[in-house]
Each structure stands twice: as C-alpha cells, then as structure tokens.
Amino acid sequence: MRNIVFHIALFFSVVWLFSCSDSSEDKAVEKTPENNDVVQQNIDIPVGFVHVTQVIAGDFNRNGFQDVAVISKQAHMVIFNNITGSTEFADFKEYDISKPNVSMCSSDINNDGNIDIIPMMEAGVGQFLLGDGSGGFASANETLTFIGRARHMICVDINKDNLQDIIATGYGTVNIYINQGHMAFERIYFKINNMFINKLVSVADIDADGNMDILLPDFGQRVLYVIWNKGNNSFEKPVPIFYAEDSSMGAAVPINLLDGKNNPVIVYTIDGADELVFIEKTGADLQFKELKRIKVLSSPFLLNIADMNNDKIDDIVVSHHPDTTAGDKANIAVCYAPDFQCPDVFSVVGHPLYSVTTDWDGDGFLDIFVPLEYDAKKVVYMHSPGQS
User: Fold this and answer.
1) Has residue 28 got a pLDDT over 70?
2) Is residue 37's pLDDT more than 90?
3) DSSP string, 327-346
4) Phi and psi of 32, rounded to 5°?
5) What is residue 81's three-state secondary structure?
6) Alpha-carbon span 364 to 357, nearest angstrom
7) CA distance 346 to 333
8) Beta bridge mates, 181
9) Cα–Cα dist 373/286, whole Å
C-alpha cells in the first residue's frame, strides 16, 4: 500500500524506543538560540505519499474520538481512524481522489448527521466525499467550478441557515458557495485583482452586525481585505481595511484577547521577519491600526488560533518557514495569551503548513497536527503542549 505499511511499522518502532527511555529524558532540554524556549518532542506520522497539502480532523466514525484525514496534491487521501483514543495511528484507510488537491474542509455538507470531506483542486471544489457515519466515504461525483486558481478553503455556515457553505480563495479571486440543500450550491464570485494571493481565509464578525465577514490577507500586496456580510446572502465587494508597512502578509486571523474592549483584533504574520503584529478596529470607519507587536522565532508564516491550555483565552500556534541554511529546519511554536510568549517549540525538518488542533488522545487538551510540504511524506503530531 504505497510503502505505508513499512512506514507505520517504523513509526511504532520509534514509539517503542521513546516508551523505553527514561522519563526524564522524554522532556527535551535543548534551548533555542533565539529566546531559550524549550524544544519539545514530536512524532512523525508517515502517510506514504509526497506533496501533503492539508490535514483536517473530525469524528468521522462517530465513536467519540477525533479522526484525522490527510490529502496530497497527488490523487491520494488517507484517513486515520481513532479507535482507542491513544497516540497510535495504526488504523487507516487510503482513498484515490481527484488531483491536484490544494486544500480541503470537513462538515456535514448534505445535512444527514455524518461528517463529509470536501477536497479542493486548483480548478474546482470537489469531488465531495460523503461520510457514512462509520468512517467510510463515498464519492458524490460533485464538483463546483472555481474561477481562478484555488489555494485555500473553509466550510462554514456563513448565512446562518444551518447548512454548511464553502468559501474558497486563491490567486485573484474569491468564490463563495451558498448551500441550498440537496447538494445544490449558488456561487457568488469576486475578482480582486491579478496580483491577489490568499493562502489562508477566515471569518469573523468584524463590524459587529451579527454576520460573519470574510478576512482575506493578500500575500502578494501586503493588504488585508474584507468582504462585508450584510445578511440574506448579500455580500459587498472586497475592500482593504489595513495596509502593512512590512513585507508580505503570510496569514491574518481574528483573535479574542478578552481585554474588555469590544473592538475586534486581528493578528498577522510578516513574511521573513520575526514578529506577530496585532491590529484593532478604530472608530466607525472600519479601518484598523496597529495595536502591538510580539517577538517570535524567525519567519512566522501560518497561524492557527486555539485555546491550548484551557484557560478560555485564545492562544496562537505558529508554523514557521524553514531555514534553508540549516538543513530546512523549521519550528512550530505555541504562543500563550495574554503576553503571547512561546515556551513550547517543536522542531521539524521540512516545510510546515497550516496546523490543525484537536484532542486526538482524549486527555482534555488540544493536540497539534502539521503537514509537511513537498517530499516529506509525513504529518507531524504534537501531543498536548498546553497540558504542562
């Protein structure tokens, strides 16, 4: 099965060696030269194919444990079913799907109570993989046309009708697919400009009108765009709300600082720098100004917002670009609110992409899964960093 059995066996050999070592040695003591954060251990999950693009999580078999799906730009997907709630990844199933796959999301897209998986190719959304509730998936042979070249997508009920919609972005354009039920979708299309590049789309109620607006950081032009959601499937054209003075924006996501203010806050990365920048809304003109900057490890790129230590405040998981002068060594860092220091650092070799957080082992704390791009053939698993 594409060498995956061999790699799974190798994985368990590595896990056995970890379990036989002294517990005091399990706690890595290496310090980073930049800020003395502790470098934590992680586990490599072999997937048997190259060009991994994304990981998603969900209880696909409805047994109360979170499962994980991995896709690649090739025509491959593998699903790791979580049977025991432990840090084992032995139960998996491979699927052949359309290519090239650049992103995916999971939701109950056909409203039957089971979680479905929707991959996205560069030219369209689909094929739709409908879940049967026991961990299996069947293709619906449904594909939605994407105008432009697709890069990233999310599934979200953007119009609050209890049906999951799809927002897909990429080079030049944004495509919103409104779920009308029975696998029918209305597409709303916006072209921004030929230079627009979005690598991570997110939603938040920026103008506090009760509707989720769409945030679009432009990697190519250092601009943060927003699509205002006016309700009833009415969306205004994308407009810029912030211009970065630094290098390109890798990602920009909303975060809840719980600081007593009603103004929404957005944090973004500066490509090639070593800072996270926080911006907040000012006045009634819905423009943003810089609030503060936080020093982090070099080359932060993609962000994931999650409560990692169960204190009910958003923390930040940062995927960093690799250092090509140091054998492609890269970092995954967890930065904890309220001061967003990053004591938990995981070192990997490769190009980490957007992380996914979920409680895989059922210990009540979020774990982290990060796919590695290009020829790494693996996903990195980081166990409950917020627990300590």
Assistant:
1) no
2) no
3) TTEEEEEEEETTTTEEEEEE
4) -75, 145
5) coil
6) 12
7) 6
8) 184
9) 36
- Residue closest to 72 by CA, chosen among 46, 90, 91: 46
Starting at the edge strand that comes first in sequence, how are the strands of the sheet with 249-255 ordered? 249-255, 265-270, 275-282, 287-295
* Tokens standing for residue 138: 């069947």
Rounded alpha-carbon distances, angstroms, from residue 261 to 279, 282, 291: 13, 11, 12
E strands, 81-133, are 92-96, 101-107, 116-121, 124-126, 129-131
Tell me if 70 sits within 8 A of 106, measured CB to CB.
no
Residue with tokens 């917002």: 305
105 Cβ contact partners less than 8 Å away, ≥ 6 residues apart: 56, 117, 118, 153, 154, 155, 166
Which range (51-55, 203-207, 371-375) has the least confidence? 371-375
What are the structure tokens assigned to 371, written together? Answer: 């796919």
Q: Report the C-alpha gap between 199 and 251 in whole angstroms.
A: 7
Task: Find the mean pLDDT for residues 251-279.
Answer: 83
- Distance separating alpha carbons of residues 388 and 383, to the nearest angstrom: 11
Give the sign of the dihedral formed by CA 10, CA 18, CA 354, CA 309: positive
Structure tokens at 77: 């997907």
DSSP state of 8: H
For 135-153, b where at least 16 C-beta lie within 10 A, e where not — what string? bbbeebebbbebbbebbbb
